[in-house]
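ok trying again, last paste got cut off:
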Amino acid sequence: MPHQTIAPAALALIERYVAAYNAFDVDGMLETLSPDVRFENWSGGQLTASSDGRDAFRVLAEQAKTMFAEREQRVTALAPRGDTLVAAIAWRGQLAVDVPGGPAAGTRLALRGESEFVVRDGQLALVVDRS
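nice, full thing came through this time. structure:
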């Protein structure tokens, strides 16, 4: 993955976050986040989830991990945009539960999107997922 002009520490931090996400390791994800982290998830232009602070992020992350039997986020490209690092993401997962009005448990999903990261004081201060 190309990552010119990206500080090695920032790249390593994002890699740790993604690896913890893929492993369903909520504590590992939290270790990469600043205490006042802002998280947003956007789907089809709509804000579907958000949180402020590690404790609120933990609640969302614990809920999200129960929805999937498996999931994998893969960074396919990473580039700076101002003070933000923008990652192109290939995501796949298998639902563990039925989605009301949507797909049934066992359905395999694949999405492409991007995640925006802002690193401050060696931690992720902002994570925005868009699909």
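cool. The chain has three helices and six strands. The beta strands are 33-43, 46-52, 68-81, 84-95, 108-120, 123-130.
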